[in-house]
From TrEMBL:
Keyword Aminoacyl-tRNA synthetase: no
Pfam family, one: Reprolysin_5
Organism annotation: Molorchus minor
PANTHER family: ADAM10/ADAM17 METALLOPEPTIDASE FAMILY MEMBER, DISINTEGRIN AND METALLOPROTEINASE DOMAIN-CONTAINING PROTEIN 17
Record-given protein name: Peptidase M12B domain-containing protein
Region Disordered, residue ranges: 406-431
Binding residues annotated for Zn(2+), in chain numbering: 404, 408, 414
Source organism phylogeny: Eukaryota, Metazoa, Ecdysozoa, Arthropoda, Hexapoda
Basic and acidic residues bias spans: 406-417
Record key words, sorted: Metal-binding, Zinc
All copies of domain Peptidase M12B, residue ranges: 225-431
Catalytic residues identified in the record: 405
């Protein structure tokens, strides 16, 4: 059979070729290529005479070719995404935590040689890369192929351009009676779950004018710019996205938050055009918990990591928010792998939303809240790695979902579906 026709029938015959195949990844990407770890070359450009934690004590050069161009990456270890007291643990079915050592030097940042306005963020282990390469005209993503193309070996990587990503929630075939499935809902405690099916423009207009009058009275410059995170992976996420390997799961989460942090850190937070605004806001990871097994229930009350065939997304978020240790963090985020539906819409995430209203509950650094006999910590959100096609999300999709939910935790609501806030692609809407 001709190689071209074997691609069309879904057979994967090589590891360093362009792939035109029918399958789940084809729904998310217009075009992609693969590279193998053996095709990468690594060179130590500089190594310090003495051991040092300084990021430039060791500089590496990594070279590979994909998408018709030669990439020459100049990178050094990056540690600022991890809190000074960072710890990672594996959690068994009885809730016992076991410390897991993570090699901090496997996380890198840097630039593309010859491109002053570029940024590289990578995790590298055994020659396999996960990360992003930002250039002025395009962003390239690299990730292990095994999550999406299981017929390839574990040292093969998927590479794709950001402009070739097709976000699953923008597929109108999945929601024929709506504008398209939305990535999430959000919760204002005491109110019903809000989704894309609700009309928000009237409420947004009145709140916008009221908040604008409040903002006009002062300009705020933040003094604390990092939000310490608790990240929790349930047993489903551990199995699906971590390949049932604790370190793989932890490394995935660190890389994901590193990319989300860049989105926030590069954003200029500006209430009005005439105000300069501020930037440099972001995250650090303080603790990671990975559930290797479902939690065995003893008291009879629901646990977010218990075996349950189907969760309601709001009930899952509420169960997760009962953990008292959430109060020790700015935000807590649960990563799971399951499909949620609410009001005929598919949901990839949910979060409690912060508010500027005095004595409100929910979102970043929220105080404890009492409901139905339980103490809840509403500085929490969740993301699912199972997309609208029932497949594992690509890293670009995972980044956007987690960044979106964190935005709700920071107080952002959905923009109303009006032209000013929801421009067409031709008018500058992001892809």
């Amino acid at each position: 059979m001709d190689l071209k026709f074997r691609y069309l029938f879904g057979y994967l015959l090589c590891s360093t070729c362009t792939l035109y195949i029918e399958g789940s990844i084809q729904k998310n990407l217009r075009y992609f290529e693969t590279i193998h770890a053996n095709d990468l070359t690594h060179t130590i450009v500089k190594r310090g005479i003495k051991d040092s934690s300084h990021p430039y004590n060791q500089i590496k050069e990594v070279n590979f070719k994909t998408h018709g161009r030669d990439f020459r990456l100049i990178i050094s270890p990056k540690k600022d995404i991890l809190h000074s007291n960072f710890k990672a643990y594996e959690v068994d079915g009885d809730g016992a935590e076991k410390l897991v050592h993570i090699n901090h030097d496997d996380f890198y940042h840097g630039r593309v040689f010859g491109e002053s306005n570029s940024h590289v963020s990578l995790h590298m282990e055994d020659g396999v890369l996960t990360g992003s390469i930002h250039l002025p005209d395009e962003t390239y993503h690299v990730e292990p192929s095994w999550r999406h193309l299981p017929d390839l070996d574990n040292r093969t990587m998927l590479t794709y351009k950001q402009s070739d990503v097709k976000l699953s929630w923008e597929d109108s075939d999945l929601a024929p009676n709506a504008m398209g499935p939305r990535v999430c809902g959000y919760v204002k405690e005491g109110e019903e779950l809000e989704t894309a099916e609700e009309t928000e423009s009237d409420k947004w207009t009145s709140e916008h004018h009221r908040e604008k009058r409040q903002i006009d009275q002062y300009e705020y410059t933040p003094t604390k710019t990092r939000c310490p995170l608790l990240l929790v992976a349930d047993y489903r996420f551990f199995q699906e996205m971590g390949g049932s390997n604790t370190k793989t799961t932890i490394n995935y989460l660190i890389s994901l938050i590193d990319r989300v942090h860049k989105i926030y850190n590069d954003t200029i937070w500006q209430d009005r055009q005439e105000v300069d605004g501020f930037k440099g806001m972001g995250f650090v990871i303080k603790k990671i918990l990975v559930h290797g097994d479902p939690t065995r229930i003893k008291s009879g009350e629901a646990h977010y990591n218990m075996i349950r065939e189907k969760w309601d997304v709001r009930n899952l978020l509420e169960a997760f928010s009962r953990a008292p240790q959430h109060g020790d963090f700015c935000l807590a985020h649960l990563f799971t792998h399951q499909t949620f539906t609410t009001r005929n819409s598919l949901v990839l995430g949910l979060a409690y939303i912060a508010s500027s209203r005095q004595d409100s509950r929910g979102g970043i650094c929220s105080n404890e809240y009492f409901k139905n006999g339980y103490t809840l910590y509403l500085n929490s959100g969740l993301s699912s790695s199972r997309n609208h096609y029932g497949q594992r999300v690509i890293t670009r999709e995972a980044d956007l979902v987690t960044a979106h939910e964190s935005g709700h935790n920071w107080g952002s609501e959905h923009d109303p579906d009006i032209p000013e806030c929801s421009p067409a692609l031709a008018k500058g809407a992001p892809t």
